[in-house]
């Protein structure tokens, strides 16, 4: 487990919590209980603190050259496992392995569709209609967004899959490489 895993989970949860805030603002049914969100925030603060401790003890070259590739300490891994377990317990429809895999594949489909539309509008746009050229740029930018989301979901899905495989094998406390 390394900084990429922490960052991917963090961005996914942040995006989901922003959509949860929008749902509550619009008066829709909330997906998460407020007490569960507070517990999740406490666990995320613990993950953040342990990862920051790891970064403080990291050598200068590791911090400069590859800060997110450096493996996490045992304390950070334990905090991250507790956070992920809380996530899966809180909302298995969003955060268990199958749900993340499904979300990742859905984002892949949107990524491909965006780039195909970008290509089609770019190749077949008439010079008389500059709006289609601009649409090509918009589809490209949307595709770039989907590529970032797809990568984050892939990393998170891989992490959840490894944690579930370790738990199923009875090695829940073993280190995750």
Report what the structure shows.
With 177 residues, the chain is mainly alpha-helical. It has 2 domains: 1-95, no CATH class; 99-162. The protein is 80% helix and 0% strand. It is built from 7 helices and no strands. It has helices at 3-25, 34-57, 60-65, 74-90, 92-95, 97-124, 130-168. It is globular and about 60 Å long.
Quick overview of this protein structure:
The protein contains seven helices and no strands. With 177 residues, it is an all-alpha fold.
Secondary structure: elements and pairs:
Blueprint (H helix, E strand, L loop, with lengths): L2 H23 L8 H24 L2 H6 L8 H17 L1 H4 L1 H28 L5 H39 L9
Helix pairs in contact: 1-7, 2-4, 6-7
Distance between the termini: 5 Å
Count of individual beta strands: 0
Unreliable stretches: none
Radius of gyration from the alpha-carbon trace, in angstroms: 20 Å
Helical stretch count?
7
* Overall morphology: globular
* SSE pattern, N- to C-terminal: HHHHHHH
- Provide mean pLDDT, rounded: 86
Biggest sheet statistics = none
Return the structural class: mainly alpha
Quaternary status = single chain
List key phrases describing it.
mainly alpha; 177 residues
